[in-house]
Write the structure tokens for this entry.
Amino acid sequence: FFTRDDVEFIRSIGYDHIRIPIDEEQMWDEEGNKDPEAFTLLHNAIGWAEASGLKVVVDLHILRSHHFNEAEKPLWTDPNAQERFYQCWRDLSDELKKYSTTLVAYELMNEPVADDPEEWNVLVAKASSVVREREPKRFIVIGSNRWQSAFTFDDLKVPANDPYIILSFHFYHPFLLTHHQASWTGIAGFKGSVNYPGQLADPSEVASIPDETLRQRIAHDNAVYGKDTLEVMMAQPLRKAKELDLELYCGEWGCLPTVPRESLLQWYRDVREILEKNQVGWANWDYKGGFGIVDRRNENKPIDDLIEVLLK
């Protein structure tokens, strides 16, 4: 699925790093034993990146005790699940500490979703200390609660006086545009057209939605959006990074190709310009998936117009 050729292609089109998601169930068995093959694959990917001049963010993406879209998340209530999370980082640090701190950064966890943001802040403090005991100068990427949303950044607390922290948020706004017809969302039933910039959906199409709950949800989100609107939506992470004098990273952003092509490309164009204007590093989501820059269904053919907007 992911080979040296992929890494070399990513470098050739202009990226300077790769964010590599890893899941607990891929890397460890249910008894917590490391899977040797999985760790070999991770080391291979990091080695290919280093050889190609790319840096790497190793992102602990999904835990057995925490999937960002599952109703039950034992991570927040079970001390054993929390200890397992910390042990994952002990193991990862032991495996990866040999790599230069300028090559590899660690992302503690992808898209935490706690009912109380303080629950995430407590885990951030402990998990950061686990890494710091082993690696005082490793860069640690830390996102905000509730899907790393830009709107929850004011609630995020990170260890004080640690210059080796990178703050991270994800940006998929407006959701009605970026996740148009996405099967895993509450707006999947809306099959009407969407547009950007401007008002997202035709009010007459929204009014004709037969399901009242869906109609109300779409109507609630059917506002006018443009580049200025998007920048305002990033205000919390921009402010927090400035207050703490820390680097800021948009570790995920993307739009599904279910919308008119020019709307999609203009959204990508505007978000990229906002991020770079504010000196925010970024990694778009994703590579070969539904938001990808290559078409997995067509022999991984590059999606040239999107690559042009992202990297040229």
